[in-house]
Amino acid sequence: xxxxxxxRAALAGIGVALAAGPLGAFxxxxxxxxxxxxxxxxxxxxVALALASDLPVGLGxxxxxxxxxxxxxxxxxxxxxxxxxxxxxxxxxxxxxxxxVSFVPGVRTDLSAYLFGDILAVSAAxxxxxxxxxxxxxxxxxxxxxALLTSTLNEDLAHASGLDPDRERLILTxxxxxxxxxxxxxxxxxxxxxxxxxxxxxxxxxxxxPESMAVLAALIGAAATxxxxxxxxxxxxxxGPSIVAAAALAFAASATLxxxxxx
Length: 263
Fold this sequence. Notes:
Keywords: Cell membrane, Ion transport, Membrane, Transmembrane, Transmembrane helix, Transport, Zinc, Zinc transport. By secondary structure, the protein is mainly α. The protein has one domain: ABC transporter involved in vitamin B12 uptake, BtuC. It contains 13 helices and no strands. It has helices spanning 5-29, 33-41, 43-52, 57-77, 82-102, 111-116, 124-143, 145-153, 155-160, 165-187, 192-204, 210-235, 239-262. Helix 3 crosses helix 4 (57-77) and helix 4 (57-77) runs antiparallel to helix 5 (82-102). It is globular and about 55 Å long.
């Protein structure tokens, strides 16, 4: 089965969707879109460091994404103006990453694979990393679901319930960094945030409970993966952007259906 590159690609995309969907729900609820951008853009710097030091790309990406996520989380806890700060960090991390990659021999010509993903080149080892990381993210979210949801809805209520909102924010930070690391191969650094936000935003207009929104976001992401791969196969379009385009169509359909329901 794993000899078929399309099956490997589909499994990789579905694995990412299972992690990105529920996590994306929290990104939407907490309005953390720029947070996701900053973390995903830092992945390019992780790629450069991994290639320069002969480490696995996934490990380098995870380390730098985690460092960026922890930095952003710390600044948010200290009351920094996050819209400007995140904008600076996101674009600076991407710029430094691209500059660093240019110093690694033989990588510049393959840079698009790290920016936009190369899902059709996913190997069996990549699948193990993607599904292992996705399983950890889902397990983390299931374990802390109630606490994360309470902290998201009202931090004062979380304090009254004996919860630490900063700790829950850190858990989301860890999950986000891990998701960025596993999604880099599928959609690339520039499109990871889109797979976090678009399926969750599409699910919000259809779901009646937080739990159903998380499940729907994962299903929409998985459907977008299969639809994007089909689009790529039929029209020879880039696979990663095609997946995001399919997710955007799902969002448009969801928005239209939601508007019809209200009329």
